[in-house]
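User: Can you help me understand a structure? I only have the sequence.
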Amino acid sequence: MTTVAVGLDRTSVELKMYSREKEAVFFSFLFPILLLLLFSVIFSSQFEDSARTGMTAARYFLPGMVAAGVILTSFQTMAMSVAAERDDGTLKRLRATPMPPAAYFLGKVGLVVCTSLVQVVLLLLVARLAFDVPLPDTGGRWLLFAGVFSLGVFGGTVLGIAYSSLASSRSIGAVVIGPQLVLQFISGVYIAFTDVPQWLQQVAAVFPLKWIAQGMRAVFLPDGLASAEMAGSWEPGRVLLVLAAWAVAGLVLCLTTFTWFKRGTV
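Assistant: Let's start by predicting it. Here is the structure, written out as tokens:
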């Protein structure tokens, strides 16, 4: 059996294990969908002129929820699950089996790809069917969506695996969720990016979430809102370049820091 075939089998195992982890499914998979529903209803009164502007609460928050979903299903899921598997000895036992090491990572990538795709499809269906949000009507926007989504998912996956080495399973939740919540607020996921102080915008620009959110705004929002960005435009080329750089850096970190064994053990 080839490594790819073993990786596909491992993906099936990973999906079954993930579906049984109710907390992970809620906070990484369902959370952005639930927030989109809540924000679209709660803030609808602030978009009373939607008939003239074409902007509704659901359309306004959709890019941020897609960006948050990418990070949650890739970075957060990988960081927390790999740290747990390292501490409970799962990785050590897998390393002792005939399974090729690459198949383990293919299984993790398969898990993230499947959950991210299903999640973004559900987000778009909720936005379109429940709140009549217009979807992109040009091939260029869909291509940008594919590029930002793919680079975001890949970068989040390898960065999450690398990040899992920073803490034990007991502390990885706080180490991941705390900084991530801060980044979501200063990257324009839950509030308008223009409301974030400029120095915090500069801090957010160091991390990939800001660029995923900006890329998704370029996909789903009218071009007239591009002037609100830091550079006064959507900067699609720069968005893809930064995310590609983070994906390469994450892959290097993943390959150089990953270990199959818990700290202090062999």
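Now, to help you interpret it: The first helix runs from residue 3 to 20. The chain has a mean pLDDT of 91. Let me know which part you'd like to focus on.
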